[in-house]
Amino acid sequence: xxxxKTKRGTRDLLALQSSGATSRxxxxxxxxxxxxxxxxxxxxxxxxxxxxxxxxxxxxxxxxDERYVxxxxxxxxxxxxxxxxxxxxxxxxxxxxxxxxxWRDMLxxxxxxxxxxxxxxxLLAVIERLPSLDPFLLREQLKRHGxxxxxxxxxxxxxxxxxxxxFVSEEISKLIELAxxxxxAATDTTRVVQILxxxxxxxxxxxxxxxxxxxxxxxxxxxxxxxxxxxxxWVLRDLWPQLVLVLNELRAAQVKGANAEPDLVRYIDGARxxxxxxIQLHRREVVETLKVYDDAFRDLTVNGKPAAFREFLVKxxxxxxxxxxxxxxISHIASFWRYRFPKGCQEPVPVADLADILQDFEASLGVxxxxxxxxxxxxxxx
Length: 382
Prior knowledge:
This protein is of the alpha+beta class. The chain has 14 helices and seven strands. The chain has a five-stranded antiparallel sheet with strand order 1-5-4-3-2, with helices on both faces. It has a two-stranded parallel sheet with strand order 6-7.
C-alpha cells in the first residue's frame, strides 16, 4: 500500500480525476459526481463498499521497482487508487494492486467499514482478468460473472452500441449462414448477433458450437475472447486515424521553458522518437494478431474448414489478453492527448508537463524505463 504525496503524484491524480472512463482508467469518483441522483447509481453500485465506490481504477503497466510486491511478475495489473478526499486531490491517495501479496487484507484495511467487501473483492478479481477497462468488455465481463452494475458506470452511447452491432452483423453473417444452414428464423443475422453479444453462451448457439466441435469452458472462454477480437477490430477503425493525428501533433508540440530545463528537453526529444517506434511496433503486433483471426475465419467461412477457427478459439483467450494490452495502451495515448490538447490547440506546453505526459505514455507502452526522465522528474517533484 502506498501514499502519494509528491508533486508528480498530485499531478497524476489530477490527470486521472479529469480523464473519466477510458480503456485504461475508470474514475468512480467522477461517475459519482455526474450520476449521484441516477436511480441505477444508487440501486446498482459498482462497488457495494462506499469507500471503494469512490476509487479510481487503472490498468497499470508494472515497473521494475514494483515487481517485488507480486509472487509472479505480471506485465500489467489493476491498480486501485483511493483519494483521501474526492474534492481535493492535492491531499494525495492510498493505492494497491489487485493480485499483489496479501491484497485482500490490504483491501479491508483501506476501507472505513467492511460493507460488501467480500463481493467487491470478487469483482476486482474478475476485472483483473481483463486486459483493459474498455467499457464494452468490462460491462460484459461483469454481467457474465453475475455482477449487476448500473449503466451509468459505462460510457457507451446508444449510437456506439448500434454501430458495434452493425459491424458484428456484417462480420459474422457468413458464419451464421454456415452454422445454421439457412434454417428459417435461426438465420436472422440480427437476432444471432444479439445472442452472440449477450452475456451468456446459450442453447441457441448450439449449431455454432457443434460446427466448431468445442465443449464447456473452452467454448465459453473462446467465444468471449472472439467477442473481444470483434470489438477491437471495430475500435481500430477509428483509433488508427486518431493516432496518426496525435503522433503528428506530438512531433510538432512546442515546449515552453526549454532553456531552463535542458535535461528534460533531451528526455522529451528521445521520448518522442521512442514513442513513435513503440506505437508502430504495437500496431504491427495488433495487425499480425488480428490476421490470425481473419485467416482462421476465412478458412472456415470460405473453405468450409473449421479446424483453423477451432484452433483460434482455443488460443483466443491468451491472444485476447495481449491484444487488449496493446490496444489499451495506444488508445490511452490517443484519448488522453486529445483530452489534454483539444484539436487545433497550438499553445506551447510547459517543459515539465510535457515530460510528465510522455513519461506516462512510455510507461503504458513499457518503453523508456531506463531513460533519465523518471529520476529527473522525481527529483524535481520531491
